Amino acid sequence: TRVAGAGNAARVARPVDRGRRRPRRSCARRRLASPRQAEGSHPGGGQVELHGARVLVVGASSGIGRAVALQAGAAGARVACAARRAERVQKAAAEAGNGAVALVCDVRIAEHCESVVAQTVGVFGGLDALVFATAVDPLARLADCEQQLWHDVLSTNVIGASLVCRAAVPYLAAAGGKAVFVSASSVGRPL
Questions:
Q1: How far apart are CA 127 and CA 58, in angstroms?
Q2: Per-residue pLDDT tens for 117-163?
Q3: CB–CB of 71/78 below 8 Å?
Q4: 129-132 and 54-58 strand pairing
Q5: How far is the C-alpha of 52 from the C-alpha of 166, rounded, in Å?
Q6: Rounded to an integer, what distance in angstroms lies between the CA atom of residue 80 and that of residue 129?
Q7: Is the pLDDT assigned to residue 3 strictly greater than 50?
Q8: In sequence order, which residues have a C-beta less than 8 Å from that of residue 135 and are 6 or more positions away?
């Protein structure tokens, strides 16, 4: 970027266009990543077809994970909805339709991480996409956070994500699949 004009020293102009424009991609026009792309499409971009894709959504009982599971099901994907809260994840799977299954999984437990992938592969015969959309976000003052809270945050957000992904990698690689990690948070008050 460069400063625009001597009289407007506080204003910053947009970067100089050197002919290297990135294609604009509207979020509304893009669909979830899937290895089952249309013939001849670029593997890293463009629209993809979810119909028939085998998708595991971890964190599907609420929030973004639930929305992803419902959208994937509506697009024709075969969805495995996984989360800690059995009643909520069963409800999400029922709403996702298209033969979606509900799996109970606490990503803080290593055996659950391996089991949820194995169960998904057992039901669908493979795995084309993993969406990890679960997270612990402590909305508390730093001074009020105990050590156990930070163990839960790291166990869920980092270790759990890596264990689920590690279990899924052989199946994703075999199918030319993708792993997507989604998280969102907001801070309700300052530190």
A1: 13
A2: 999 999 999 999 999 999 888 777 888 889 999 899 999 999 999 99
A3: no
A4: parallel
A5: 23
A6: 10
A7: no
A8: 59, 156, 157, 183, 185
What confidence score (pLDDT) does residue 36 get? 44
For residue 175, the surrounding DSSP H or E stretch is: helix 161-175
- 28-32 contacts, C-beta under 8 A, 24 or more apart: 31/75, 32/68, 32/71, 32/72, 32/75, 32/77, 32/129, 32/131, 32/180
Please count the residues of the chain. Answer: 191
CB atoms within 10 A of CB 125: 10
Q: In this predicted structure, what is the pLDDT of residue 139?
A: 77
The answer to whether residues 86 and 101 touch, using CB atoms and an 8 Å cutoff, is no
- 4 pLDDT higher than 90: no
Half-sphere exposure of 187 (CA within 13 A, CB side): 5
